[in-house]
Protein 1
Amino acid sequence: MLRVEHLQAGTLPPLTFEVAAGECLAIEGPSGAGKTLLLRAIADLDPAPGQVFLNGAERNEWRRYVRYCAAEPAWWSDAPREAFKGAASGRAERLLHALGLDAAVLDRAVAALSTGERQRLALARALLDEPLVLLLDEPTAALDPQAAALVEELIKYQTLAGRSAILVSHDRGQIERLAHARLLLSKPETASVAAAAAP
């Protein structure tokens, strides 16, 4: 279980909430409400007062079990294959296939890939070592409906496998399909957690 206690990201009030194993929490709110800031604070990418626990352990013990997938993922090599080195045999290929990508995409220049290809590759990269928690920032924003459906199926599979997910999305339909609960950031100074219909 991921537990956030009195975490304050940007101008948001201190937030406390839990995401159980196998559940997806959607963070909703208008642009500028602090959704991405909150994800980055949970991932410990930006300093923020408060505490985050995973199965009772504090952040310095669990960083490798939590993956943040940015809306615009960064790459540190000319081709994606470098990021996939050391993956368990066949796992990278299975993830790519699930996302509608051919393994040959790993050897193409990152700069030559479409935004949607980079976004799906970043999700595959994040899942290589089977993290316990996924922090997903607009994971299908650059995708056509067919590719978006594949990403949603993979996210569903991850929660069915017992992983936790926190999803930022402006797609109400996607939230209804994936989320078990919602965190509503209506204004920078207010926030509330609401239950969602089971996906």
Protein 2
Amino acid sequence: MTDKERKNKPRQIMTEQGPLERIANFYEVPYGYSEDQAVNEAMRCLQCKEPKCVSGCPVNVDIPWFTKLVVEGRFVEAARKIKESNPLPAVCGRVCRQEDQCEKFCLKGKKGKPVSIGALERFVADYEREKGDVSVPEIPKWTGKKVAVVGSGPAGLTVADDLVKRGHKVTIFEALHVPGGVLMYGIPEFRLPKKIVEAEIEYLKKMGVEIELNSVIGKIETVDGLLADGYHAAFIGTGAGFPVFLNISGENLVGVYSANEYLTRVNLMRAYRFPEYDTPVLRGRRVIVIGGGNTALDSARTARRLCPEEVTVVYRRSREEMPARAEEVRHGGEEGVKFMFLTAPTRFIGDREGRLKAAEFVRMELSDPDESGRRRPLPIGGSEFQVEADVAIVAIGNDVNPLIQNTTPDIGTGICGNIIVEQETGTTSKKGVFAGGDIVRGGATVILAMGDGRKAAASIHKYIMTSGSSGSSH
């Protein structure tokens, strides 16, 4: 096919559940590509000699190569090509911000729409899994080295994948009763089905990665204890699971949730499958969600499915400054979520029984850009007003969990409690200890955490093979 023919091919659009249908269920919204759609979309790739899309991917997936395999109908081989650098393709194909990463650098996007790299990644990963053709790569003979990975979120899973493929024994310690971290508790079923995460983790287990659940490092064992117990290195990828609150009056009222608690109750504890799972969560009639990121949209779209009369996302900046993915905002709008921009909460108001009944807001205006590059919101005096609400979900970010830091006093931390590392290696101030993902960055994206994991894995491999690190084997 000539370059001209490639340029003229339209971008393939995934079919989706209709809005009225999907707000009555928690099934995944996009259906994914058909085989013909995938081939036609992959044909749009120009097979650039110096592909910028690869450098735009934090884990450096060889995008031209895998799209070429799709064009040839070699879908399983395409999935395996991706897995050489990305152990979670079915996850990343669904939740990555491709528009800000690989697709942002696609030459097709200069004069049109970029190749839909994420949809293709999802297609080949789903094809491999659904055809039952998932195979484990050949694992080298054990090197005699063992690595402890604390946390089974995206960073920890990526470290485990890279290290086990280098011949090291890897044990993941997960605090919760299921592995997956934020992929399991923080992202709704309709955006990332739990069976997808479970299948990706099962692939790692087949390669030899061991996972110990209900293992809170910092409580049952410390990082120092792991190193003394035979592990030659440790990676900390415990994420940012502590919610940030507004620090305004009324946040302790019944009906005011952090997004972290709300999504955990619904996603991990299956509140959406009542009465099969009798997990308590207030459904409410009028729900307000404070924030403008993907977590705010996840919360709002979840609330919409739990049958409230009205769900409103309240954001202190304008639509243009919202960090949420455009697809998330579009889906929310289609599903009936309302948006209130340039508005910030000042207090929550309760009834005599301590239950939320309303929220007070103030109008905002945008001033000069702040350190984030977005224009700073400032309140407009005298513009306060009240809105009736019986559920409020605060989704303005997360802080890091301090448990590891508090029980590992010789590890360097920042003013926010985040672990300080060398950016390109994930090396901490403590010998033999590495870190990455949200515990370092604060709340960020799945693929950035995975990129951190790949860098740290390379550093861990070099460290344990060349430094003479010693750990008692057992």
Protein 3
Amino acid sequence: MAGGTPVSRTQSVFAVLGAFFITNALVAEMIGSKLIYVGSTSWRLGPFGPFAMSVGVVLWPVVFVTTDLVNEFFGRRGVRRLTFLCASMIAYAFVVLFLTMKVPSTSFSGVDDASYNKVFGGSRWIMVGSLTAFMISQFVDVVVFHLLRRRTGSRMIWLRSTGSTVVSQLIDSVVVLWIGLALPLHWSATQFANVAIPNYLVKLVIALCMTPVIYLGHWIVEKYLGHSVAEALAEDAALDRTADVTPLRVVAVDRAEL
């Protein structure tokens, strides 16, 4: 296969998806403490409103779409590997932020201690909530995805991808906001609802709008790996046989070409 063997190309796909997965998750954590209004400040629904959301919301559907692509071609073990790696990187970032907040800034620093601590101190709570929500929602996503995969086979990619995202993002939205913002900021139930409802709905809309991106991702992977290799990956992932990022049948194809 020109441009690389099936094994090296498969590992490259896993590496690129993993990098995209971790980067989007980490950036979402860092910016998650900033809230913005959704629509007009005069919008109300009974006792609820005005509605707000975290700016990090826009990146989480990307994370879950990437999860579904990893799930499709590398199975539960691939998602589990990336989930633990991503959680470790988020925890590492948490430690770095904590330590840097303890070091006083210089008198000529462009960012004083109060500003730095206000921004990144809030991010620390978001990270604690997100780590909890992330682990729970990722594993729920995997379970729902594979339940739908068994029922639909290789058909209806949109159903298993969107269906798993709808459930997992509901859990993620509630848990992360409760631990990351509601508890440390002492929100009332109404304040929590004013943020949790639009957070989830915006995630849901973005996830639905990204359905064509899922098919595009499948097409790119298949084009890059070749139909037979991509199909072998997907079949092994569906049967939960992926012991590594490269299934045995791909290794067999690679050796046959040597």
Protein 4
Amino acid sequence: MRPGRVAAIVLRQLYLLRGSVARAVPLVSWVAVDMVLWGFLTRWLDSVAAPGTTFVPTLLGAVLLWDFFTRVMQGVAQVFFEDVWSRNFLNLFASPITIGEYLAGLVTTCVGTSAVSLLVMMLLAGACFGLWIFALGAVVVPYLLVLFVFGIALGIVGCAIVLRLGPASEWFIWPIPALVSPFAGVFYPVATLPGWMQAFSRLLPPTYVFESLRAVARGGSPSYSDLALGGALAVVDLLLACMLFRSVHRRALRSGLIARYAAETVT
């Protein structure tokens, strides 16, 4: 893997962001709206709850972390979609760049965009609603890393789906975080779910993140076994996602799918 080729993918995205305010605004706009909306909701819930009860660490904290995960997943997909929308695949894959270098460029770009979104969310949550997420301790960092790795994995899976099915299938990708959230126990304990949903939840790395952080927010200690299991699942998911994308790309080359990718829908 050559760092210069990875940097070229990143540089292209920087030029796109610099040349279009419309591309830069979503990095902060949606997460800011979520922080303000859920922040006032938690403030109202605190006002009607029993004395001593606060929803800010559990509810607003969950929104912050889940928005971070969503931003990571959609950040990877959107970088890929830039090549979809510009019909740039023939130019890109006719170059010497490898699939590994291309995916590394997607991930590196996502690191920057998700870091900006996370910073905005933390500043809003802290300054406006008194939630300083790192007040929970340094354990927040590895939990954020688990969410980041799983978000990258889902983003790569989304890219593989669009590469296989065509540009029209991008509308299958945006709802993925919303479809995953009921199973991951973002806003409530997994024990609330029926048995069949709990079985699926145990396969999702975010489940272990939110279950453990809820215990920390209540004054308990973090579960390092949950952290290790969630991290292991996230890494396995990332490896499987990369293998899937490589397989879909190889099939697209052999079948000539890349050359016909200008079609709105490809079967």
